[in-house]
Amino acid sequence: MGLIKKYKLKELVAFVVICILTGSSWSLLAQTGDSTAVTTTDTATAAAPAAANPISAPLISTAVDTAINAATTVAAEVDNSATYKSAWFYVLLFFLLCVFIGIIGKILRVYELSREMQGKHTAYDWRKINGGLFIVALITGLYGVYWSYDVQGSMSVTESATVHGEDIDLMFYVTTIITTIVFILTHIFLFGFSFKYRGSVERKAYFYPHNNAVERIWTIVPAIVLTILVLLGFFTWRGITNPSEAEQKKAVLIEVRGEQFKWNIRYAGGDNQVGVSNYKLITPTNGLGIDFKDQKSWDDKLAGEIVIPVNRPTRVMIGSKDVLHSFYIPDFRVQMNAVPGMPTFFQFTPKYTTAEMREKTNDPKFDFVLLCAKICGSGHYNMQSKVTVVSEAEYAAWVAKLPLMYNDDMKKELQMAESKIQETNNSVALNNNINR
Ligand SMILES: [Cu+2]
Predict the structure, then answer these.
(1) Same domain (yes/no): 267, 365
(2) How far is the CA of 253 from the centre of ligand 1 (A)?
(3) Is the pLDDT of residue 7 over 70?
(4) What is the pLDDT of residues 315-362, one digit of tens each?
(5) pTM for this entry
(6) Could you write out the three-class secondary structure of the chain?
(7) How many A from CA of 336 to the centre of ligand 1?
(8) Is the residue at 97 inside a domain?
(9) Is residue 107 part of a domain?
(10) In a shared domain, residues 56 and 130
(11) What residues flank ion ligand 1 with Cβ within 5 A?
C-alpha cells in the first residue's frame, strides 16, 4: 500500500497527460488518413463515367468539368496531404512513439511492483535484455551500413570525366575503404563486448585501468594511417591546382563570375588572356565591369553557356560579383569557391565529349552540369548551367560565332562617357580661370 501511495499522484497525473496528448495525436492522424482516402476515391469515381462515354462530346466536357469541379471542392475541403510534410506531424509521431514506449515501461513497472508486493522475485533479467538489445542494435546498424552503401553508394559512384578526377576518385576509394573497415570492426567490438560482458549476478567486474602496449597501438596505428591519407590528399591537391606555366598557356581560358543567381561567362579570345575588370566600372551594359582601356579585353567574348574542347586543358578563372558562390561540376570532380575580389583558378582536362558520355551512360539526355555549391541565397538552386564538351573543330566553330564584348554599342557608350569627363574637366578649368 505504501508503494501505491508513493506512485499514485505522480502516475495519475502522467496518465491523464498521456491520455490527452495521445487522443489529440490519434485524432490528427485519423483525420489525415481519412481525408486522403476520400479525396482519391471521389476524384476517381467522379471522372470515370464521363471519360468512358465518347459519344456526347459537349456533354462529356460538361460532365468532366463538373466532376473536376466537384473533386476540387472536395479536395479543397478535406485535403490535408500537406500535414504529412509538416515538421509538426513528425514531432507528434515521434511523441506518440515515446508515449507508446513509456506506456509499455509503466505496465512492466506496475507488474514488477505487484510481484514485489507479493514477495516474488523480479520477472525479467534486465541485464540480459539490455545485452540482447546491443546485438539487435549491432545487426540493425550493420545492415543499415550495407543498405546505404548499396543504395546511395551506387548513386554517387560514377566515372570521372576528367583526367585529374581519377586521382580524386582513387583518394576517395582508399579513404572510404579504410574508414569503413575501421568503422565496422570498432562497432563489432563495441557492441559485441557489451553483450559478452553484460551484467550478471554470478560475475564480478575485473578492474583493468591501464595498459601501455594497447595505448601505444591505438595511438600509433591511427596516426600513421591518417598521416598517409593527409599526405596523399596534399600531394594530389597540389598536383591538380598547380599546373606548370607551359600547361597553363596550353589551356583554354574562361572567366566564370557568379552572381545572385546566375553565372557570367567570358571567353578570353584570340590572345587567350582576359582583360582586367573593376567593380567600379559596372554599368547596366557592362555587367562585369570590364575595363575596355585594357586592350586584352577587346577580343573577349561573352557566352551564355560553357562549351569546351575535349582532351585539351581548360583553365577557369573563378570570381564573384556579390556573395560567396562555388563553381562545382560533379562529373569533372571540380569544385572551387567563387570569392568576391579574389580570383581563384581551376584547370582540368575533359576526357569525354558530351556525346560520348551520353553513349556511356546510355542516357540520350545526359549533360554535364555546373552548379553552385554554396548556399548563396533564395535562388541558389537556380544556378544550374549546362556544360558541353565537344571536339576541337566543333569548339573552334562555336567560339568563332560568339559576340565580342567590345562591340559598337560599347564603343559609343565609352566615347560618350569620355566626352562627358572631358566636358567636366573643361568647365572646372574655366571656373578656375574666372576665379583667378
Ligand atoms: Cu551561388
Answers:
(1) yes
(2) 21
(3) no
(4) 999 999 889 999 999 999 999 999 988 889 999 999 999 999 999 888
(5) 0.65
(6) CHHHHHHHHHHHHHHHHHHHHHHHHHHHHHHHHHHHHHHHHHHHHHHHHHHHCCCCHHHHHHHHHHHHHHHHHHHHHHCCHHHHHCHHHHHHHHHHHHHHHHHHHHHHHHHHHHHHHCCCCCCCCHHHHHHHHHHHHHHHHHHHHHHHHHHHHHHHCCCCCECCHHHHHHHHHHHHHHHHHHHHHHHHHHHHHHHHCCCCCCCCCCCCCCCHHHHHHHHHHHHHHHHHHHHHHHHHHHHHHCCCHHHHHHCEEEEEEEECCEEEEEECCCCCCCCCECHHHCCCCCCCCECCCCHHHCCCEEECCEEEECCCCEEEEEEECCCCEEEEEHHHCEEEEEEECECEEEEECECCCHHHHHHHHCCCCCCEEEEECCCCCCCHHHCCEEEEEECHHHHHHHHHCCCECCCHHHHHHHHHHHHHHHHHHHHHHHHHHHHC
(7) 12
(8) no
(9) no
(10) no
(11) 325, 372, 376, 383
